[in-house]
Write a structure and sequence with these properties.
Strand content of chain B: under 5%
Structural class of chain A: mainly alpha
Distance between the termini of chain A: 34 Å
Low-confidence stretches of chain B: none
Number of strands of chain A: 0
Radius of gyration of chain A: 20 Å
Helix content of chain A: over 70%
Largest sheet of chain B: none
Helix content of chain B: over 70%
Structural class of chain B: mainly alpha
Largest interface: A-C, 44 and 31 residues
Order of helices and strands of chain A: HHHHHHHH
Chains: A mainly alpha (about 250), B mainly alpha (about 240), C mainly alpha (about 60)
Number of strands of chain B: 0
Shape of chain B: globular
Low-confidence stretches of chain A: none
Oligomer: heterotrimer
Number of helices of chain B: 10
């Protein structure tokens, strides 16, 4: 591992699975509490206090789930690709583990965004599914996630699997803007310009404040879930080391 | 172990010589098994046959479907043939030799994909008029069909090769390749069928072809890098 | 409060099915992603402890 002067010390500290395990262990309880609090506040606000939309009525409340999950699904993919790149360039095991841990969470967020989008479509557009540009792009994102997960589990050797998945994630990330552009274009060709499902026009504060809370809450959830899975992955991969043995004995 | 012309022994170090030697080797090896060459083409025609049988043989209806069906059939046929790209070399050990050789992997990989494209994508493009006939594609659409396939199928081969390289070490890589590569194929499909639709309705093709060309250019530059990296990873295990 | 009564709240102006289905799924997905790793962790620790004991006794 080349010592690069412009990389801060903590970057290489993060590379140590043990250090990662310890620091996530300390952060997790507090973050979990904060996340649950934000989720509770956000949900109550969205369901009870936010106003209904003048056109869509109360089904508009689905936005408070759909948009945060879509945002997290997309950010998670970027993180996954970044982790893949770091793992490939610097051969850092923890980066491989982050990639593996992020994929299922991102996939479930993409799935949630898709399903809530579809459910929202029914009262708005009259059918359970529409080939809306955003929904179609989200569907393709889900496929990209599933591909990474499938590749990771198909290859037996863990580090080979991680590096192959990293390449796939990077190829995917380059393709995401291309896919989005082509699907948008395809959609304008095949559907009249109706009200866009996830359009965020000038929303009054009573509407976007709970949305902001939910977005932050979902990000918090993502970090918590990632840390949990990462810790499991670290324990598994490092199960034969001394510090894990000590940990097991202390349990 | 038959390797045909060994590209590692090319005396003149030029990239072009390496490229040509590799392409020639690929052709030699593939033509020893002529029956395998025909498979993607037969599949192509069969898939196109499924649609009238499964849906409706009405000429007007099929004419509407034709651009999309021909493109999807070409896409699937290409996908099916991708697994074979590296597999026989992997199994007899010559892939490892290629990776160990001092020759630039970028050129080797590009040559393999180019040869593969000639035998699949290009062949499919040449067969496309037959399918256009079977599916009642309006005559105006033919130019758009051929040009879009000509520009699009190399991209499909390049991107498909990434999937093939990632899974070459696996015993049952076939279906997995499809799962990995299909999302990446979607932009090519969209613009390819867009080009044919435009041709059918008499609109200008240039924009679509430019987009397809841009995708191809991007794939030509980036895919061999990804393929080489993926091959190294697959072999290393 | 956007609603005047609990039954109004449940009905969601006729969109009750959609809203509650969505929120139910949302809660489900989030809960699953928080609980399942926890269960995996417990299983993992138990298995590894067993393995450790086996190797020490062997």
């Amino acid at each position: 591992m080349a010592e690069k002067k412009w990389l801060p010390r903590w970057f290489f500290q993060l590379a140590s699975p043990r250090w990662c395990y310890q620091i996530t262990g300390r952060l997790l309880p507090g973050l979990l509490l904060l996340t649950l609090l934000l989720l509770a506040v956000g949900t109550v606000w969205s369901l009870l206090f936010a106003p209904a939309d003048y056109q869509q009525g109360n089904s508009f409340r689905i936005i408070y789930l759909h948009v945060p999950s879509a945002i997290v699904a997309q950010s998670a993919y970027l993180l996954m690709a970044l982790a893949g790149a770091i793992g490939l360039i610097w051969r850092i095991k923890v980066a491989d583990m982050v990639l593996k841990s992020t994929a299922p969470i991102g996939a479930s967020m993409a799935l949630l965004a898709l399903v809530t989008g579809a459910i929202w479509g029914k009262p708005t557009w009259g059918s359970w599914w529409v080939w809306d540009a955003r929904l179609t792009s989200m569907l393709i994102l889900l496929f990209l996630y599933l591909g990474v997960m499938a590749l990771n589990s198909a290859i037996e050797n863990e580090s080979t699997a991680a590096r192959a998945a990293a390449i796939l994630a990077l190829v995917g990330v380059v393709n995401i803007p291309i896919i989005k552009y082509s699907v948008e274009w395809w959609n304008t060709l095949h559907q009249p310009a109706t009200f866009k499902l996830t359009e965020k026009p000038a929303m009054p504060a009573e509407m976007w404040l709970p949305l902001l809370v939910m977005v932050i809450a979902f990000y918090g959830f993502f970090v918590v879930s990632l840390m949990q899975r990462l810790r499991n992955e670290i324990l598994w991969r490092e199960r034969r080391t001394g510090w894990v043995r000590e940990l097991l004995n202390k349990q | 172990m038959s390797t045909g012309t060994n590209p590692g022994n090319v005396r003149r170090g030029s990239a072009l010589a390496l490229f040509t030697a590799t392409v020639r080797r690929e052709f030699l090896l593939s033509f020893r098994r002529k029956s395998d060459l025909a498979n993607p083409l037969i599949f192509f025609v069969m898939v196109a046959t499924l649609f009238p049988l499964g849906v409706s043989p009405e000429p007007d209806f099929l004419a509407q479907l034709a651009p999309g069906v021909i493109w999807v059939a070409a896409l699937l046929a290409t996908l099916l043939s991708m697994d074979a790209l590296f597999r026989s070399d992997y199994e007899d050990g010559s892939l490892e030799q290629l990776l160990l050789s001092p020759q630039p992997l970028f050129v080797l990989v590009l040559a393999k994909v180019a040869a593969h494209w000639c035998m699949t994508g290009l062949a499919l493009t040449l067969m496309a008029p037959l399918l256009a006939l079977m599916l009642f594609l309006p005559a105006d659409g033919m130019a758009g069909l051929l040009l879009s396939l000509l520009l699009g199928t190399p991209t499909l081969s390049l991107v498909g090769a990434i999937g093939a390289a990632l899974t070459v070490g696996l015993k049952k890589g076939g279906v997995l390749i499809s799962l990995l590569v299909l999302p990446l194929y979607i932009p090519v499909l969209i613009f390819g069928t867009g080009a044919v639709q435009a041709a059918v309705t008499g609109l200008p093709l240039a924009g679509y072809l430019a987009l397809l060309g841009a995708l191809l250019a991007l794939a030509l530059v980036l895919a061999p890098v990804a393929i080489a990296a993926a091959l190294r990873i697959s072999i290393s295990s | 409060m956007s609603f005047n009564s609990f039954s109004e709240f449940l009905a969601m102006g006729g969109h009750g099915l959609y809203v509650w289905l969505s929120y139910g799924l949302g809660v489900g997905v989030i809960a699953a992603n928080l609980i399942l790793p926890r269960l995996s962790r417990n299983r993992l620790l138990a298995e590894q402890k067993r393995r450790l004991r086996r190797e020490e006794n062997a």
